[in-house]
Amino acid sequence: MVTAIRYHVSVAYFFAKLAVQRQLEYPLFLVSWFLMIPLQYISGVWVLKLMVEQFQALAGWTFPQLAFLYGLGLLSHGLSVIFFIQTWHIDNMVIRGDFDRMLLRPMNVFFQFVVNYVNFIGIIDLIPGFLIFFYGCAQVGFEWTLVNVLKLAAVVIGGMFIRASICTIMGSAAFWTKRSGSLISLTLATMERTTMYPLSVYPKVIQLALTFILPIGFISFYPATDFIGQEDGFTLPVGLAIWTPIVGIVTFAVSHFIFQSGLKRYESAGS
Amino acid sequence: MSAYYYFFKMRILTTLAYRFEVFTAVASNAVMLLATVFLWKAAYRGIGSVQEVSQHQMIVYAILSVVMGAVLSVNVQDDMYYRVREGHIATDFIKPVQLLGMFLAEDLGTTVSALVNRAVPLILLASILFTPPLPVSLTAFLLFVPSLMLSFLLLWLMGAIVGMISFWVLELGNLGIVKDAIVRILSGSLIPIWFFPDWMGTVSAYLPFQYMYQTPLSIYIGKITHSQAGTALAIQAAWIAVLAFIAYAVWQRAKRVTLIQGG
């Protein structure tokens, strides 16, 4: 058991090392992303600020609270961009026959798929996330107790798994249809729009759907209401923040199952 | 002329060929539509009007803005980048057509097909879920149409100029996305400029961006009067002249750079 885990970790480590080295080959590309990503997110939060200034509050949320929510969402987004960006490109991997190689290796394909790439550049997504989040924390008076820090870590990692699982499930459509690119853009657009504003902006039906069908609400909205103490939307037993890692694990298991059943349909394409 | 018409027609046919892509693209736009309108509704909760714009006007503005974004598709910068990078540009220059004309014809083709397969479903959806996005008056609508066309040209010229940069750098990276992000904020497509702090509004008046979205949309919802609309149309036309001149000048140089690179 221990040797098996150690073996898997070492494989993951070598994949990560290779991926980072590959990306450092193009430093200029890195710089251009460095300009781009922060611009996008800072302007996003700035638009919220403008709206709150004109309208006092947004569905009962003040600007610091909105910044906290937005920042929290960006943190798990950043992590998923670093570790799970390959879940956005399953269709390319199906068309190019990338799974051939993985199928030949004596190791679980889903594991290989997960650790296959580390998008080092994704760190740039994290920086504005941290800036906005810490700003929000300072403004809403977030208490940095040990319990809160542990909860925060669980929420951010859980949120990353929810995001990755949803993308894997949608991307796995490519095993059947050969294309899922536009489906992924749709999913990403939906996740962006539904994690940056409070869910309570939307009508009840959409809130329910984003809680029980596509559990996006657990990425940032429910934990944020818990941390800030906003009474909004649903109340679940044992603190809303605790649910995020649980939902993360469940959705990840579901995505594993769907990926595996898709893989059975995989017919190595091309020449 | 018939050559350009052919490019225009082909683009319509190819965009219609991929049904599933069309469906998911419309679904993406629909998500944007829902998110934006619900956001404005939440903002206006318990508030009559802000900056002399009522909730109804703002919702029509938001719906139309999403529809415009879906329809005015400008691919020229990506097309140009792709053709330069893959080397197709060399054979393109041999073709007996003006290349910029070809790109324009293709983008017009995409836009016309988007009017059918994107604008219609989005407007239907918005009418069912929220309110039919009707113009404030017939005159406003008649002024909106030319303004919208000028907006298309402005967006297209901006895309063409950014696309031409690929002749020099070969790797455009995400310059296109940077441009799109700037346009989204400064054009008023996400949030109207009248919500900006005063100094930014002043600066914005001297930049071409707000004439790409905000001008036609303001005319449509009646935020600006008819005489102001006339002035706005003139400013749009003036910016088109400026950008067309820049595009032409850059294009002449770009052609020379390509020749130097050779086969």
How many domains of chain B? 1
Q: What structural category do the secondary elements of chain B indicate? A: mainly alpha
Q: Which strand-content bin applies to the residues of chain A?
A: under 5%
Helix share of residues of chain A?
A: over 70%
> Terminal Cα separation of chain A, in Å?
39 Å
Q: Please report the total strand number of chain B as a whole number.
A: 2
Helix content of chain B: over 70%
Name the beta content range of chain B. under 5%
Radius of gyration of chain B: 19 Å
Please outline the helices and strands.
The complex is a heterodimer of chains A (271) and B (263).
Chain A: H1 2-24, H2 27-55, H3 63-84, H4 90-96, H5 99-104, H6 109-115, H7 123-140, H8 146-171, H9 173-177, H10 181-196, H11 204-213, H12 221-228, H13 240-264
Helix pairs in contact in A: 2-3, 2-7, 3-7, 3-8, 3-12, 8-10, 8-13, 12-13
Chain B: H1 2-17, H2 19-44, E1 49-50, E2 53-54, H3 55-71, H4 76-86, H5 88-94, H6 99-129, H7 138-164, H8 166-169, H9 175-186, H10 198-205, H11 214-221, H12 226-261
Helix pairs in contact in B: 1-6, 2-3, 2-6, 3-6, 3-11, 4-5, 4-7, 7-11, 7-12
Describe the structure.
The complex is a heterodimer of chains A (271) and B (263). By secondary structure, chain A is mainly α. Helices cover 75% and strands 0% of the residues of chain A. In chain A, α2 packs antiparallel against α3 and α8 packs antiparallel against α10. Chain A starts with a helix and ends in a 7-residue tail after the last helix. The relative contact order of chain A is 0.14. The model of chain A has no long low-confidence stretch (mean pLDDT 85). Chain B has one domain. Chain B is 77% helix and 2% strand. Chain B has a two-stranded antiparallel sheet with strand order 1-2.
